Amino acid sequence: MITKALPAFVLSIAMIAITHTAQAQTHRKVALQASVPYEFVVGNRTLPAGNYVFEMATGSPKSTDQAGVLVVHNYERKLYVAVATGVENDSNTHVLPRLVFLRNGDRVYLSKVWRQGEIAGLSVHTPATQEDLQESEVLMLSATTSGGM
Question: 54 lies in a domain?
Answer without folding.
Answer: yes
